[in-house]
Amino acid sequence: MISLYITNKASSGKTVTSLGNSVTVNLNQPILLDEKKKYNMRLLQANIVYCSPNVYTNVNNVLSYTYNGSPFTITFDQGLYSVDDINTKISIFTLENNSNASLFTFEPDSSTSKIYAVYNVANIVINCNVAYSIMPLLGFPKATGNISGPAKYTISTNQANLNSLQSIFIKCDCVTGSYENNRVSNVLASVIPDVDPFGTIKFMPYFPTRNEITSRRIDQITITLTDQDGKDIDMNTNNGARAPEAFGVVLTIQEEELKLSHNQN
Asked: Looking at the structure, do residues 173 and 208 belong to the same domain, yes or no?
């Protein structure tokens, strides 16, 4: 059995993509497998910092409102936001621009996953129908138009969709045998985030899948993280100029066990 531990931490003999979600390790000694035998790879463990953004620049990073007849626009940096994070950004902006840190807030309804827009002052109007609006993320589609008083709050039409990342696919370039929907793929595992933003997902499957090795000479191995739609995950979220957020995997390569027929001893 051959064991491998691969991380996206930069080092010699290794190439990490700009998003930090894919790493290629060049082996100083290639792995040579017997041409007459079959081998499989299993993923025994993965540690992944959960940092995939739900707010994207020029996609859904703008909140537009009018207060006392004057329009204002809040622009959010790309990142992974909770409702509290969004409220903090709004509070800082309205304090600086309207001398009031409590013009309006968003409050979650945990029983329905909908969001209340709560108005703490009169003459506040929130526009859901602007380019790159963040409001659909909070359950207020563009068709909602403007929301405002005289009621103290408006509840969202849809459920909030703050957790846009539903599953992390861990892929390896030298295996096959798994299925991604109806297509044969190189997915070693599907990991569901179970931690708060920027916590570390610790994945240790009880029954690791066995994926067939496609080559008998392995000079390099590439591990890639994508979301459930096959899109590359950005491990640089809210990271400035620092290195990408970390991930690492523990893999084994093992000869496929022969299955004996019932009439064999």
From this structure: yes
